[in-house]
Amino acid sequence: MSPTMVFRKAEGSDDSEFGKLELVIGGSGGPKIITSVLQVFINYCLLGMPLFDSVVRPRVHEQLMYHDAAVTTTEKDHLAQG
Long-range contacts for 56-60 (Cβ within 8 Å, ≥24 apart)? Predict the structure, then answer.
Protein backbone atom coordinates (compact mmCIF):
# COMPACT_ATOMS: atom_id res chain seq x y z
CA MET A 1 0.00 0.00 0.00
CA SER A 2 0.94 3.64 -0.16
CA PRO A 3 2.64 3.23 -3.54
CA THR A 4 5.09 6.04 -4.19
CA MET A 5 6.92 6.76 -7.44
CA VAL A 6 9.85 9.18 -7.45
CA PHE A 7 10.91 10.81 -10.72
CA ARG A 8 14.11 12.80 -11.22
CA LYS A 9 14.27 15.48 -13.90
CA ALA A 10 17.44 16.28 -15.77
CA GLU A 11 18.82 19.81 -15.51
CA GLY A 12 17.03 22.13 -17.93
CA SER A 13 14.32 19.62 -18.84
CA ASP A 14 10.84 20.67 -19.90
CA ASP A 15 8.30 21.03 -17.06
CA SER A 16 5.81 18.87 -18.96
CA GLU A 17 8.07 15.81 -18.61
CA PHE A 18 8.10 13.54 -15.56
CA GLY A 19 11.77 12.73 -15.89
CA LYS A 20 13.51 9.42 -15.24
CA LEU A 21 11.83 6.97 -12.85
CA GLU A 22 14.21 6.86 -9.87
CA LEU A 23 12.41 4.83 -7.21
CA VAL A 24 9.17 2.94 -6.59
CA ILE A 25 8.36 2.12 -2.98
CA GLY A 26 5.39 0.96 -0.94
CA GLY A 27 4.84 -1.10 2.15
CA SER A 28 2.72 -3.23 4.38
CA GLY A 29 2.17 -3.07 8.09
CA GLY A 30 -1.09 -1.27 8.77
CA PRO A 31 -0.52 2.02 10.56
CA LYS A 32 3.26 1.89 9.98
CA ILE A 33 3.05 2.00 6.16
CA ILE A 34 3.36 5.74 5.65
CA THR A 35 6.23 6.23 8.08
CA SER A 36 8.10 3.24 6.60
CA VAL A 37 7.76 4.59 3.06
CA LEU A 38 8.83 8.04 4.22
CA GLN A 39 11.91 6.72 6.00
CA VAL A 40 13.05 4.71 2.97
CA PHE A 41 12.51 7.80 0.79
CA ILE A 42 14.55 9.99 3.15
CA ASN A 43 17.35 7.43 3.49
CA TYR A 44 17.69 6.88 -0.27
CA CYS A 45 16.81 10.21 -1.88
CA LEU A 46 17.93 12.74 0.71
CA LEU A 47 20.69 10.97 2.67
CA GLY A 48 22.13 9.10 -0.34
CA MET A 49 22.17 5.66 1.29
CA PRO A 50 22.32 2.61 -1.00
CA LEU A 51 18.84 1.22 -1.70
CA PHE A 52 19.37 -2.05 0.18
CA ASP A 53 20.62 -0.20 3.28
CA SER A 54 17.70 2.24 3.04
CA VAL A 55 15.20 -0.61 3.13
CA VAL A 56 16.77 -2.81 5.84
CA ARG A 57 17.63 0.02 8.24
CA PRO A 58 15.48 -0.25 11.40
CA ARG A 59 12.54 2.08 11.36
CA VAL A 60 11.21 4.35 14.07
CA HIS A 61 7.47 4.70 14.37
CA GLU A 62 5.44 6.59 16.94
CA GLN A 63 1.78 5.75 17.31
CA LEU A 64 0.12 7.15 20.38
CA MET A 65 -2.36 4.78 21.98
CA TYR A 66 -2.01 1.95 19.43
CA HIS A 67 -3.57 -1.15 21.00
CA ASP A 68 -3.63 0.70 24.34
CA ALA A 69 0.17 1.11 24.42
CA ALA A 70 1.40 4.71 24.49
CA VAL A 71 4.99 4.00 23.43
CA THR A 72 7.44 4.73 20.67
CA THR A 73 8.72 1.58 19.00
CA THR A 74 11.44 0.49 16.64
CA GLU A 75 11.75 -2.76 14.72
CA LYS A 76 11.83 -5.74 17.11
CA ASP A 77 15.18 -7.09 15.84
CA HIS A 78 16.79 -3.72 16.57
CA LEU A 79 15.47 -3.77 20.15
CA ALA A 80 16.75 -7.30 20.74
CA GLN A 81 20.28 -6.29 19.71
CA GLY A 82 20.44 -3.16 21.86
Answer: 59/32, 59/35, 60/35
